[in-house]
Amino acid sequence: MLTDDEISLLVNKKFREGVRKWMQAEGEKREKNYLHVSSFEYKCVRKVWYELKYADRVPDVEDTALLRMWIGTKLHETPITDNHEFRVEADIHGMHIGGRIDEIFEIDGHKYIIDKKFVKIIPSQPNDHYMTQVMYYAVLYYLMTGEFVDGVGIHYFVPVMTYDASVVTEKTYVRQLTQEDILSFKEFVEDQVLQLKTSLEKDTLPPPTRTWYCQYCPFSASCVNDSVDYVEGDKK
Ligand code: SF4
Q1: How far apart are CA 174 and CA 222, in angstroms?
Q2: Is residue 233 part of a domain?
Q3: Ligand 1 atom closest to Cα of 210?
Q4: CB within 6 Å of ligand 1 — which residues?
Q5: Residue range 150-166: average pLDDT?
Q6: How far does the centroid of ligand 1 lie from the alpha carbon of residue 224, in Å?
Q7: Could you tell me if 3 and 77 lie in one domain?
Q8: Is 5 in the same domain as 78?
Q9: 137: containing domain
Q10: Residues forming a β-bridge with 87
Q11: How many angstroms separate the CA atoms of 126 and 98, rounded?
Q12: pLDDT at 178 over 60
């Protein structure tokens, strides 16, 4: 007969297996007919290139990250505005790019693209890569609808149960945009996509964009190896 501890371990194991199975099913439902905006959030074209070339090499998500993803996905499901999970997509240099905007708020006659992020601690300023993601959305929204939004932002939320009122569990950072801001970012997006497209067509490795993210990048080992004799434009 099993002990209480053994049963407890088995329940945990089955729980994680259930979540993993659910995440896999969710992954299969994900739109596969376009490049996802989230691939570009670290502004590294080489990473997107690896994702396309070596999709099968992406390691399995470890258990704790899996549970975080599960909680985040479930919390995202609740619609906050009428424009919940608003799908945007556009062709840029012949490549199809898209994503889903979490929410579009209409306030005082102005539109704001807001992405929801669930974190352990509210940051003192919005993360650059999240802001990049919402700027991509603003560009795609413009390309798709011909309309400029008035701002983008991140709504941070700490999904913890606490009765301590001093703990900050929610904060929204908004950046108001001019049409010029969006058009200027559009040029950046077009440059990135063109770099990617050219590298894919010529089968050459795009240049790396080294940032703090590299230590978490699933392709860091390949990237370091490939960089040893990387010369811009060389075939790898
Ligand atoms: S390790 Fe850094 S530079 Fe290399 S692909 Fe990943 S994000 Fe880009």
Answers
A1: 37
A2: no
A3: 3
A4: 42, 44, 46-47, 50, 208-210, 213-214, 217, 219-220, 223
A5: 84
A6: 8
A7: no
A8: no
A9: 31-228
A10: 100
A11: 22
A12: yes
Q: What pLDDT does 73 receive?
A: 85
| pLDDT bucket at 228, cuts 50 / 70 / 90 | low
pLDDT at 151 over 60: yes
Lookup: tokens for 162: 């606490």
Residues 159, 50 within the same domain: yes
Q: In this model, does residue 70 exceed pLDDT 90?
A: no
Q: For residue 174, what are the contacts with CB-CB under 8 A and spacing of at least 6?
A: 112, 114, 151, 152, 153
182 shares a domain with 123: yes
Q: Using one digit for the tens of pLDDT, what is the confidence trace for 100-127?
A: 999 999 999 999 999 999 888 899 999 9
Residue with tokens 């959305």: 137
pLDDT bracket for residue 144 (50, 70, 90):
very high
Return the pLDDT at 147.
97
Clarify whether residues 109 and 217 are in a common domain: yes
Burial class, 221, CB count within 10 angstroms (exposed 0-12 / middle 13-18 / buried 19+) = exposed
CATH number at residue 90: 3.90.320.10
Q: Which two tokens stand for residue 74?
A: 């479930």
- Taking the mean position of all CA atoms in its chain, how far away is CA 178? 24
Residues 174 and 85 grouped into a single domain? yes
Do 143 and 207 fall within a single domain? yes
